[in-house]
Amino acid sequence: MKRLLSTACSETAFNIAVLVIRVTFGAMLLINHGIDKLKHFAEKQSSFPDPLHLGHMPSLMLALFAEVFCTVFLILGLFTRLMAIPVVINFAVIVFVVNKGYTGPAETGVLYLAGFFSVLLMGPGKYSIDGAMGK
Predict the structure, then answer these.
(1) What is the DSSP letter of 135?
(2) pTM for this structure?
(3) In sequence order, what DSSP letters do the residues of 73-130 get, joined into one string?
(4) Per-residue pLDDT for the chain (135 aa), expressed as one digit of tens each?
(5) Which residues contact 67 (CB under 8 A, 6 or more apart)?
(6) CA distances (Å), 34 to each of 44, 64, 70, 119, in order?
């Protein structure tokens, strides 16, 4: 009972938690959003949201970079903090620019932002390629 109420965290528990967050959020983003954008690239390239006024195609390519390329590296735990930055920026834009003023549920963007921001702060953990290389 004493352990259940403790605020202490073992190093193993922390590393397992980081692994679960990294792989779960990464796999969900890749499967549910990244691969879909990749499959339907031709249809989306002229109508993709352009919140930063870069153009539809560059906006789609930046989203693809974050949601596919960076996410694969995050799942593996390779260059974790560096790869988390574009994903966090992607979801910050989604939450604060694209969904600004939207009164419907925007939980998905906020959850991804929170999950990947946590990975950015915590790093890859021991159970990652970065951890195996001793970074």
Answers:
(1) -
(2) 0.87
(3) HHHHTSSHHHHHHHHHHHHHHIIIIITTT--S--HHHHHHHHHHHHHHHH-S-SSSHH
(4) 677 777 778 899 999 999 999 999 999 999 999 999 999 998 888 888 888 889 989 999 999 999 999 999 999 999 999 999 999 999 999 888 877 756 556 788 889 999 999 999 999 999 999 989 876
(5) 29, 30, 33, 34, 37, 87, 90
(6) 12, 6, 10, 19
